[in-house]
Amino acid sequence: MAPLAEALAAAAALVARVAAGRSLSAELERVGPDPLDGSRAALADLCYGVLRRYGRSQAIVNALSRRAGTTDPLVEALLWCAFYALESGRYAEYTVVDQAARACISLQRGGAKGYVNALLRNFLRARAGLEARLGNDEIARHWHPKWWIERTRAAYPAQWEQVLAAGNTHPPMCLRVNMRRVSTEPYAARLAAEGIVARRIGPAALLLERPVPVARLPGFAEGEVSVQDAGAQRAAGLLDLHAGQRVLDACAAPGGKSAHILESTDVELTALDADAARIGTIARDQERLGLRAQLRAADCTALEAWWDGTAFERILADVPCSASGVARRHPDIKWLRRDADIAAFTLRQARILDALWRTLAPNGKLLYVTCSIFPEENAEVVDAFAARTPGARRARLPDSAAAQLMPSPEHDGFFFALLEKPA
User: Fold this and answer.
1) What HEC string does 26-76 produce?
2) Which of 182, 284, 300, 375 is most buried, judging by how many CB atoms fall within 10 Å of its CB?
């Protein structure tokens, strides 16, 4: 089968599994390492592109097909992938139509060839008039679920459309230079020598003009640099770290913030995560970087399972959340999240704060972090905690920047709040 037909068939199978509730990253991991022919890269591009356009492709099928909603999930997913391929401008229109029909054979859906061919041709003929119809459909226009649109509009009435649009863009690629091994400017010069354009946007942060494979980064295997969003890099600086402090990273995976803490200051760091497999990933990355923390697989709220009773002077609580601030990086989130999930996350976040506060030393500081743009998970959780917790005080952030970072060309969406415990 021709390469595009193969890619469309593989992407349709994967996207159908995501639409049924599977994680995109987990499904891509099942594909295995990238072969030399680059087919995995093409597959990932198709999947990410389709999933970013949440709602648009479904709306097109609904508008053009009498079978909408009753189509075989694999065939439906194939149509979504074909629409993305058509609108990407990377392929001739007749090629996409032909290859999508051929992909039906690979998917063992040969009987759907005529349907797929006819619907795609109908789309090309009706595209101009169809756009006007789609413009009246908020889900199709903004590429987000209705509940997500409504929450964003309520939280940011003056900028909600820009917030949603930013969540549909390609994410930036930012590097964190390991200052224990190399300084930022000399490393930037090494990138330039390799033809990689970057600019400094933080003490250790280099924003690439365009993403590159990790294998192209000089010194990556030797631990001189890591990939970490510039917004995420803000956390280490906000903790007000000092040498010798006892520090806890309570929800540590995938480990970037733990590594940044250790690269920044000589502290005694304990890193927890409830997922034992992800602890192994953190350990391997710290070995690459020449760092060492005490790693524990444990639920941070189950104090009896991991805490020795000695208080921490600094705590990073990068809590589980909707991940609405990083949806462009993980577009399957828009498929997988439900409105009711927000309430469940806020309950979990409150329990984490209540538990960790018990382990914080007097005069200690706890940094609450989410990668969410929804106030219900951010300021509302922190304000409610401060109101019910004697002595808890929300302090000014040391960098004086806004607590809420929105997705932008430089960074993802994050929320930060610093809580201080009285003596």
Assistant:
1) HHHHHHCCCCCCCHHHHHHHHHHHHHHCCCHHHHHHHHHCCCCCCCCHHHH
2) 300
pLDDT by position in tens, the chain (length 423)? 468 999 999 999 999 999 999 999 889 888 766 544 456 777 888 999 999 999 999 999 989 987 665 679 999 999 999 999 999 998 999 999 999 999 999 999 999 999 999 999 999 999 989 998 899 999 999 999 999 999 999 999 999 999 999 999 999 999 999 999 999 999 999 999 999 999 999 999 999 999 999 999 999 999 999 999 999 999 999 999 999 999 999 999 999 999 999 999 999 999 999 999 999 999 999 999 999 999 999 999 999 999 999 999 999 999 999 999 999 999 999 999 999 999 999 999 999 999 999 999 999 999 999 999 999 999 999 999 999 999 999 999 999 999 999 999 999 999 999 999 999
Maximum distance among all alpha carbons in the chain? 74
DSSP state of 223: T
Whole-angstrom distance, CA of residue 22 vs CA of residue 268: 37
Q: Show the CA angle centred on residue 380, arms to residues 375 and 386, nearest 5°.
A: 150
Print burial letters for 367-391: b (CB count within 10 Å at least 16), e (below 16).
bbbbbbbbbbbbbebbeebbeeeee
Cα–Cα distance, 403 to 166 (Å, whole number): 18
pTM for this entry: 0.94
Judge contact between 45 and 84, C-beta under 8 A.
no
CATH class of the region 173-228: alpha beta
Give the DSSP letter string of 261-322.
HHHHS--EEEEEES-HHHHHHHHHHHHHHT---EEEE--TT-GGGT--SPPEEEEEEE----
Q: Using CA atoms, how far apart are residues 366 and 240, in angstroms rounded to an integer?
A: 10
CATH of domain 3-143: 1.10.940.10
Strand, coil or helix: what is 209? coil
> Coil, strand or helix: which one is 202?
coil
Task: Determine which one of 174, 300, 321, 371 is catalytic.
Answer: 371
DSSP, collapsed to helix, strand or coil, labels residue 142 as helix
Residue pair 110/94 in contact (Cβ under 8 Å)? The answer is: no
Q: Is 251 a catalytic residue?
A: no
Q: Where in the chain is the domain with CATH 3.40.50.150?
A: 233-420
